Amino acid sequence: MAFLEWNDEAIVNHQAMDTEHKKMVDDTNKLYEYVISNKIEEANKLFQKIVDDLETHFGMEENYMKISKIPQYISHKLEHDRFYNKVRSLLTKINAGKKTITLDHLEVVKTWFYNHIKFNDRKLANFLNENNIK
Ligand SMILES: [Fe+2]
Ligand SMILES: [Fe+2]
Asked: What is the CATH topology of the domain spanning 15-130?
């Protein structure tokens, strides 16, 4: 069983969002493999990429929120900002040699990912689909 599963809990049925979420799932699963096999250098490098991709992904969703004028823009963006600041600050500590990625960090990511999709991204995807925004 994969660490993060690409299943109904993750899929939102909006193509652009699903494509990026699937990439995150795959990258996070690869990161999990690096962490459990103690490949620290590979893990750090991949984590850097994941954080950069996350910034791009949040930007894409926020752009969708603006063009669709979805009412939940502020609350959804706040969730992005909170999480992004958390992972960016972890990355800074890793790059400074003060921390390494642990399974506990990955568990936090897992919980956040499924909750965020459930309470934020799925609403956005449905709203985009209702308004025929691809
Ligand atoms: Fe998302
Ligand atoms: Fe989101």
From this structure: Four Helix Bundle (Hemerythrin (Met), subunit A) (1.20.120)
What is the model's pLDDT at position 125? Answer: 98
Determine the distance separating the centroid of ligand 1 and the alpha carbon of 76, expressed in angstroms: 10
pLDDT at 1: 87
The pLDDT of 114-126, averaged and rounded, is 98
Q: Any idea how long the chain is?
A: 134
Distance 100 CA to ligand 1 centre (A): 25
Pseudo-torsion of CA 27, 15, 79, 94, nearest 10°? 20
In whole angstroms, give the CA distance from residue 9 to residue 22.
Answer: 12
**120 pLDDT higher than 90:** yes
